[in-house]
What does this fold into?
Amino acid sequence: MWPWLASLMAAAAIGCSGSGAKRSFDVSSVTPNHGPNYDSVRIFIRGSGFISLLGGKVQLPTRLEGTSKTSVRLEMWQGSSQRLKEGFSLERTTVLSDELMRAEVPPGVPPGLYHLVFRRHMGLEFTKSAYRVYQVKPNRGPPFIREIRPSRVIAGQPARLSILGGNLDDPIAIILIGPLPKDSKDTQLLLQVGLGVPWPFHQARRVHLLRVSEQNAARISGTIPADLPAGKYTIQIQTSTHKGQPTDFDHLLIIAKPPAGMSERTEDFVIYFVVMGFVFLLGMIMAYRQGDVGLGTKKKRFNLAWMLAGLLFYALLIGVFQFWLSGWY
Amino acid sequence: MQHSHIIGTTLDYGIIIGYFVLVLGFGAFFGRYTKTTKDFFFSGQRFPWWLIAFSMVATTVGSYSFIKYSAVAYSYGMSSTHTYWNDWFWMPLFVFGWLPILYYSRVTSIPEYFERRFNRPTRLLATIVMLLYLLGYIGINFYTLGVALNAMLGWNLMLAVVVIAVISAIYVTAGGQTSVIMTDLLQGVLLLAAGFLLFGLGIYYLGGFGSFWDNMPYRHRLVLAYTNRPPDFNMLGILWQDGLSQGAFVLFLNQGIMMRFLSAKSVKDGKKAITFVLIGLQVVAALAVAGAGWLGKAMAERGDLPVHSNANTIFVVVSSILCQPGVFGLVMAALTAALMSTADTLINATSAVVVNDLWKVYVNPDAPDRQTLRMARIVSVAAAGIGVLMVPVYASFKSIYAAHAAFTAMVGPPLAVAVLLGAFWRRFSARAAFWTIAAGIGAMALSVIWPDVLAPFAFGIAKAGGPGLAGHLKSYFFVRALYGFVICGAIGIIVALVSKETRTKSLVGLVWGTLNEARANFKGEQPSPADGKPAHLLAVLLGESIIRKGRPEIRLPLSAREQLHAQPGDLLYVTDPRWYLGGLRSAHVVLSERTASSDRVELPKDVWNLVRPRRKNGKVRVEKIM
It folds into this structure.
């Protein structure tokens, strides 16, 4: 328990820096740092001092609406400081913590590179070149996949993946869906009923491709999470112009099982119950020798049943998560 | 203009302040039931199992729990519950061994057990270690809550700490353990309710449990994951640290928990309480404190939050997203409830150790009870004050945290091994106990100075950590518990086997296997094993008490004796029949040889004053204890 506490306290000490002292304000990143202008785009702003930024007039955490009631407006401005009046306000701005804000860039903003500006009652705070707005034609065709490289990886290991195809620029989500049913008929059925059918009718899970680093119209690269179970996966690409396009079942990613042997989750379960079971067994042996548990009297039988019932309860509780729910997508 | 909710509104502040007032009034009200030191430290041993159980949960969930376990849950998923779900394995040793030993031997503190089982030097060593642990822990609880309120509401850290400390100190000083248990009942219910409410709101926000679970990565769904990686959170490490070391420490050495169980009206109620805690409340408490972290992960996976959000602020972030005005205030109140319910127990426990193990032993052994009670109250105030004074120290020097964490990690295994061997192995001598603690702490200190000694116990867990004390402390951190158990166990066993110590005192009631004699000592004669059914009888005033075996006698009619299966001399428990009073109006008594007239129980004046039968029908409930 203690290292977590130590890390919490360390974090708390950094976050506190004394009793209510003013923190320095800083923006470290805007994610995503670009987006189309035909629809609103949700962005996350990371940094520090977002709560102290607001001063004492507004109770925190709160949302900033850019009204006259607030002391701070979060705005985006294009160009240099001489052209400040050409900016526009972010919408749905929410301070989520001292280090994180969420906002939406409204639609219809002219293309270009924008500074992020916090207008405070004492002045302005700038983050230069924080966000790029670009023009995208809404009638462009849907993204399609031509090839996945590699098409086969080993489960339990992170792997780099390249997706080749068309209309792949401006992706807002690249999602791996699976493991798909083994029977091709089931896969087709899944395709027909759609992947939006809620749990537990389908078991295909959706995970995002990580660390997407190369993006253009013909190619996307990213990392597959290491903890995906073995099976066949399909890939869904959502772009800002085509959200929720049908999944392409022609190009599948196969995650192969690692070499045979007891799975790690089973090993963990066995080790855990062997070690803690030893403590339990030791207690039960001593209780038996003292005459508290056994089969001789009603009271002893009750005590024995009571102890074993608790053990069974925890075995089931942990087992359900470890073996049943963990694989239920 | 878009309309949206604003959290941290007047309504939220109203709820928080209203909650403070409620707790203060609630705690102070029960001060009237505290008249002796036994009341102050053990609530007169009058409470039923359910009251003990709920207050136990509030005590074990500290102010840092919501933030800490949410951070762990966000980073590692369901395995954050692993810490909470280990204690059942200790149950046979606890309920059939340690709990009866404590209850029947009538010890008032863990260090006192060390003297009665071993000798005075061992007691002194245990007292010093225990006090350093308790006072440091009070300060940590105050500080973490102050930081949380500072971050979430913008409150001044010291102001928040002082307000909480004053409220806690007032009701603990006024009512002792009774106020602690009663307020912890309230706080336990509140913090569980707020945790569930937040989780429910999150599930609704995500579109149902299916959507929530779909967005949980595979690793986050495992309760036990992974065997030996990453170094700061892995299955083996949690098993050693929490399953073995912390589990033993909490159940066998935590003065606050020990006092809670000694406040039960009987050993049977103590057993029921721990069963209910471990099978029910502990399971759901894990969900309540970690739920925000799981929700945060699902939100991040779904795209509602950045994928790599800061785990340490995830509770704040998720609360900000989910809470409407009023609900946010409730969550804040729950956070303060978690603190106060832990801090009050620690304050009361500190008072018990100082009064019973220092003041009554070295300063004023013959002090009358009234004077001892006054001293207990003074120490309670002082303990809260020291906790507050430690806050700026914690805020200024981060290494102080590391030092306290290192200290706790160092003393846990030696004390746990000493008490386990002492309670369950007759051969374990005073000399062995002293060296287990002293040399054990030395061996643990060596592991902080030179972490490489832990390598043989690592089972593939990476070293991690870094330079300096704080860095060394993090190296093989979880492995340190296993190392401690093995080294301290070896020291204790070797010293016990090679030393030829002549035993001069009886171990009856202090070690496993002597509990039948201990029960007889507790009752004053052999216990009668037959259990009967409780009887509800009309109470009549008898007059002055006749004391037998240290307890007042009552008279029962023959029919009630048969119903209870009670014989003259048996230990009984008389209480107001209204269950929701939780035994506040109750007394332990002895059955007289003389009988009462039919359907009536004759109570002497002092028992009558404790039970205070209602005027309307004047009935009381009588139970057989042993």
